Amino acid sequence: MKVGAGRRLPMPQWRDDRSSKADDLDDRNREAHGLPVIDAWRREHDTCTPDAADIIMKLTKRAVTPDEARRTAERFGHPLIAVHRWAGSPAPMEAASKPFGWLSADDLDATVQVIWGDTRPTVVEEGGCGMCGVRASIGWWESPLRWADGAKAAMCSTCGDVWVTAGRPVDLMTGDPLRPGLRRVALRLLAGATSVPETDFGLRLFAEIANPSERAGYATAWTYRPTQLDAVRDRVWLYAPRYAPADRVDEYTARQAAAEEERAREIHGQTEPSRAEWDRSDWATG
Question: Where is the region Disordered (predicted)?
Answer without folding.
Answer: 1-29, 254-286
